[in-house]
């Protein structure tokens, strides 16, 4: 039986190929395109960042000026519609025309001059959420599913269920919220509540807004959504189980356990296809792997590594933050340098991690090559040219690079957390089953052990070929997993049609003790 088709609006702070910091962009972009291909009517609401450039073939037209409620007054907004070639998808670009130019400045989340978050991020994304709904009202098309991603978009669901609940496009809208990363929650001082149009009366510990005396955007999204998703089944369990993964919201998440689903992300397997990838010099597939060697040579040359001895190449493409286990790499530096391997790291992030990598690469340029900055082409070359790919994450909601590396015949070495645990199986040389090398504890010795197992299999060409083929045969495409969202949307809509939506009043009734019967 085929599932119904919906008019879906994604509200997100990133979307590939228009604005990207990490995997959120890849996921929002490729999910939205796949949904449009499946016959849904899809709009993505996205801030009109200064850095946003439309790829060839896209069209942009001014749609309408307007404004958005802002505390007791209003802030000017402007909306454009961008449309890609060969898809019915539309992007609603939200500009802020006010003096402080929330989006018309360098940097998506961080100010590139300081390397720190923009000091007014609370206001920037609050405005984005409020203005996105104004833009949708101006479009005037009924919205059946409003799907917000991560804390930057969370307020859209609150406004949907409060200030905008009687606006006609939202008459029967289902609210879905996807958690991509609980390590970033958007926690601010309570004055933002007034900008959002709420009084202090709604600010108490059981309310959707309050979190240890401050306002928590992620909690707002978790509270008002009809259904919640996160990006892998294991992460869905982990975030309810303890503070290490739940970052203080584990109780809120456990209380919504019945409404929380773990849907594994897909990848864009057209963009990430070693047989066709325009960003790499050698093309190959699982039956013709010779082209991989061409990429290897190109990578060695680009990194300036000596031709001999021919040592295995271990790659990493990552934001350089604690989440990604960069401290494990720095702890294990001595051990790693004693392994028969060379390392290629592409990534930007915390200045401390960048400096450390820079210094190590300077000390041993024949062993470690480090490139900072965002470099899409080099990311593809690292995936294609390396032998092994390393992801020792502390936590990992899903992770995309391990799926790219499986597809590129570059077996991943991963810690068994979140989506890494759901996508990589330890290779067993006796049975020839498995796709990579997995370690359990966040521990440098365990990580080096897994890397050693990988290097040992690499020395046995037949086993290695079997391992590569296993990984390259896995299907992680959105075609396979978009159906999970179709089902979820259908369920959320059933709830809305049955009148089961979460409003400020219904949430208050749930959390406040029942009044005592009279006379007692
Ligand atoms: P996260 O979203 O937590 O950063 P993911 O594995 O989900 O992790 O996605 C990371 C995405 O960002 C991948 O597409 C990866 O290739 C890309 N990426 C990360 N750092 C860089 C970089 N410096 N240059 C190019 N791409 C990068
Ligand atoms: C987040 C997570 C990452 C996930 C991505 C897309 O940035 O850190 O694990 O793959 O979102 O969902």
From TrEMBL:
<comment type="pathway">
    <text>Glycan biosynthesis; glycogen biosynthesis.</text>
</comment>
<keyword id="KW-0320">Glycogen biosynthesis</keyword>
<protein>
    <recommendedName>
        <fullName>Glycogen synthase</fullName>
        <ecNumber>2.4.1.21</ecNumber>
    </recommendedName>
</protein>
<dbReference type="Pfam" id="PF00534">
    <property type="entry name" value="Glycos_transf_1"/>
</dbReference>
<dbReference type="InterPro" id="IPR013534">
    <property type="entry name" value="Starch_synth_cat_dom"/>
</dbReference>
<feature type="domain" description="Glycosyl transferase family 1">
    <location>
        <begin position="312"/>
        <end position="453"/>
    </location>
</feature>
<dbReference type="InterPro" id="IPR001296">
    <property type="entry name" value="Glyco_trans_1"/>
</dbReference>
<keyword id="KW-0808">Transferase</keyword>
<dbReference type="GO" id="GO:0005978">
    <property type="term" value="P:glycogen biosynthetic process"/>
</dbReference>
<feature type="binding site">
    <location>
        <position position="20"/>
    </location>
    <ligand>
        <name>ADP-alpha-D-glucose</name>
    </ligand>
</feature>
<dbReference type="Pfam" id="PF08323">
    <property type="entry name" value="Glyco_transf_5"/>
</dbReference>
<feature type="domain" description="Starch synthase catalytic">
    <location>
        <begin position="8"/>
        <end position="254"/>
    </location>
</feature>
<keyword id="KW-0328">Glycosyltransferase</keyword>
<dbReference type="GO" id="GO:0009011">
    <property type="term" value="F:alpha-1,4-glucan glucosyltransferase (ADP-glucose donor) activity"/>
</dbReference>
<dbReference type="InterPro" id="IPR011835">
    <property type="entry name" value="GS/SS"/>
</dbReference>
<comment type="function">
    <text>Synthesizes alpha-1,4-glucan chains using ADP-glucose.</text>
</comment>
<dbReference type="GO" id="GO:0005829">
    <property type="term" value="C:cytosol"/>
</dbReference>
<comment type="similarity">
    <text>Belongs to the glycosyltransferase 1 family. Bacterial/plant glycogen synthase subfamily.</text>
</comment>
<dbReference type="GO" id="GO:0004373">
    <property type="term" value="F:alpha-1,4-glucan glucosyltransferase (UDP-glucose donor) activity"/>
</dbReference>
